[in-house]
Amino acid sequence: MIIEKHALWGDEPTEEHPATFTAYIADPISAVPDARKPAMIVCGGGGFHHIASHEQEPVALAYLDRGYQVFVLDYVTISTGDVSYPNPEIDLAKMIATVRANAAEWRVDPDRVACTGFSAGGFICASVAAGWKSGPFAAAVGARPLQIRPDAIVLGYPLLDPIVYRDEQLSDPRIDLRVPKTGGKTGRDLVMEYMEKVMGCEATDEALAAATPANVLDHRMPPTFVWGTSDDKTCPIVEVYDFAAALARAGVRHEVHVFDTGHHGLSVANANTRVDNAGEQAAVRPWFDLACAFLERVGVA
Questions:
Q1: What digits encode the pLDDT tens for the residues 75-126?
Q2: Cis preceding-peptide flag for 150 (omega within 30 of 0)
Q3: 72, 84 Cβ separation under 8 angstroms
Q4: Distance (Å, whole) CA 242 – CA 128
Q5: Which of 64-68, 201-205, 222-226 has the lowest mean pLDDT?
Q6: d(Cα 295, Cα 60) in Å, to the nearest integer?
Q7: pLDDT class of 274 with cuts at 50, 70, 90
Q8: Is 224 left (phi over 0), alpha (psi -120 to 50) or beta?
Q9: What is the percentage of the chain residues whose pLDDT exceeds 90?
Q10: DSSP the chain
């Protein structure tokens, strides 16, 4: 196996374009050395502050074991640059186009390029999958829209509706208390500052609705697999239900699984991501086999 890290936008990361990616390329099989494999692009979560490591390499290794060439994207975050929408989404669009442009070298089938995203990474994947045709992503990358369209997406406990997320964060009755060590700002001030940093504008209902994938998707949305947990307090499960309804109305091929427990952030729930929550891990662990079966049925495996 070859593991290589690359700058996404040139020879080296820059202040304007800090994104990088790590390629996990399986060795060719001697009997079929030129065989092309499907590709999986992995977008971990981390609340746009950083990218959670347990949603990166462990996920890559799991998909590699299922026959994918895998590319883990370190998109721009608050800790590395300008995270405002749609900069992380543009990084993903560039990653998809890059995989297709290098398909021969990486032995990838350019017609089988999928994306998987967790939490904030799920929002990035859903946004590009919903807006590849009508959104700003292709032009920013200098590519044709079809070059940035994923052939399928897999979303784990995703952020899907910024309005629901904002309102959930503001629902705590203590939100208007002043927070020590913040110059007298309240919890509400901090939430709204965060939302404005991520959105790149005032976090009005109109601005947040315009960036919500369910509001822009149509029948051109690629096949979509979504899973979450009913007790998730970080990305409330109602987001998944609303998103699934939008997929159904648009006639998009999709599969949805909601597990009764698991909360948030369990990644692939295997030995490489294990923490002290064995029961919750066991509850959600089937998602990976279910997702791989879905990808096979839709021709991306």
A1: 999 999 999 999 999 999 999 999 999 999 999 999 999 999 999 999 999 9
A2: no
A3: no
A4: 18
A5: 201-205
A6: 16
A7: confident
A8: beta
A9: 90
A10: -EEEEEESSSSS--SS---EEEEEEPPPBTTBTT--EEEEEEE--STTTS--GGGTHHHHHHHHHTT-EEEEEE---TTTS---TTHHHHHHHHHHHHHHHTTTTTTEEEEEEEEEEETHHHHHHHHHHHHTTTSSHHHHHTS-HHHH--SEEEEES----HHHHHHHHTTSTTTTSBPTTTTT-BHHHHHHHHHHHHHTS---HHHHHHT-GGGT--TTSPPEEEEEETT-SSS-THHHHHHHHHHHHHT--EEEEEESS--S--TT-STTT--S-HHHHHHHTTHHHHHHHHHHHTT--
Sequence-separated (6 or more) residues with CB below 8 Å from residue 15: 81
CB 244 within 8 A of CB 256: yes
Q: How many CB atoms lie within 10 A of CB 275?
A: 12
159 vs 222: CA distance, rounded Å: 18
**Is-contact 69 75, C-beta < 8 A?**
no
- pLDDT, residue 125, reads 98
Q: Are 89 and 128 in contact (CB under 8 A)?
A: yes
In terms of Cα–Cα distance, which of 142, 159, 132 is closest to 17?
142
pLDDT tens string 164-223: 999 999 999 999 988 877 778 999 999 999 999 999 999 899 999 999 999 999 999 999
Tokens found for residue 61? 């290794």
CB atoms within 10 A of CB 119: 27
Alpha carbon distance 266, 154 (integer Å)? 15
